Amino acid sequence: MxxxxxxxxxxxxxxxxxxxxxxxxxxxxxxxxxxxxxxxxGMAVLGHEALKDFLAHPDVAKDAxxxxxxxxxxxxxxxxxxxxxxxxxxxxADGVDHRRLRSLVSTAFTARRVERLxxxxxxxxxxxxxxxxxxxxxGGGIADLRRHFALPLPMGVIGxxxxxxxxxxxxxxxxxxxxxxxxxxxxQAVAANRDLVSLLASIAAARAEHPGDDLTxxxxxARDEGGDRLSQEELIGTLVLMIIAGHETxxxxxxxxxxxxxxxxxxxxxVRDGKVSWADAVEETLxxxxxxxxxxxxYPVRDLTVDGTVIPKGTPVxxxxxxxxxxxxxxxxxxxxxxxxRPGRPGAVRHLSLGHGAHYCLGAPLARLEATIAxxxxxxxxPGLDLAVPETDLARHSSFVGNSVRALPVRI
Length: 412
Description:
Elements: E1 9-10, H1 19-28, E2 31-36, E3 40-45, H2 48-55, E4 60-61, H3 68-71, H4 82-86, H5 95-106, H6 111-115, H7 118-138, E5 142-144, H8 145-150, H9 152-162, H10 169-180, H11 186-209, H12 215-224, H13 232-263, H14 265-272, H15 278-288, E6 294-300, E7 304-306, E8 309-311, E9 317-320, H16 321-325, H17 328-331, H18 364-381, E10 386-387, E11 409-411
Parallel strand pairs: 1-2, 3-9
Antiparallel strand pairs: 2-3, 4-6, 5-11, 6-9, 7-8, 10-11
């Protein structure tokens, strides 16, 4: 248990690598006061055990009606984090509403349904590895792995699941990337949200006119059946959340795993030699370099004491996944070391990087499958693959929500 400093930690809207700051914050305690963009006061839960308890606490809500500053009109329309609070869907619903919305899409993400996607993911992976090779041939042996492989794989899979035509996917990635950015000006944030909603509404309208065997068509059918199953606003909100969560997280996961394995060749050799599995490498990446660093928002519905620190009712709270993943109190004194044997150790603590409790990531089985196939096929096809620039030269995401780099030049 610790006591946070009287000086709140100012979240850096430009993002950057979170780990050095996280280590300093954890020495102050499991919970800390933060300053969000536009001087909005908030808090972050950083320690593994504190976060695990907080995520499953019955007096912690996701519905933004519990966000005091937003409810009182003190949050502007162009606040860069507003979408995380205001979008209507699973991640901003509680109780019965959350179960209703989650049930509408959960059947598409069961372990059995996801496993049926394996042949398609393998086929798409093989085609993208060809594209990566072509891009490298045109670039003197160097290509951006993020652009040519780590992005189109999850975007292609979620696009097919949702019935989104290929020509819309670049625009959806660009807009969702702006939505999760924390450093864009208000007018740009408003425009990005408006354009993303507009594009998804037009995609939904096309699916309504020509239904298919896809999740969007199924959601539209639920909306049109009447009753209280799904409103139009919830339909679009669900599509917004699924597009963002369905590709941004896996994109970062694959990118971070490749960076980690290239930077730790001894660990890569352990996987290649069969001493641990590619799935173990994925789990260690999730812990060591979580694809989502600080996820907005949860709100206590009453003053809540978490690990000795009071979080006032109505405070917007960030879930500090990247900090919890390297919490030495739980993961040991070597928590900051990348060790692919860690997930298989007796008594190893499972990370929280895909959430915990009722809002545990619905797409976790799909993300794990995509990343595992991607890494195995990538390093089998290109055994000499390595970073083309030093890790320290890689430009970071302009967000403290997403945790990765903007581009990943590799030499294949």
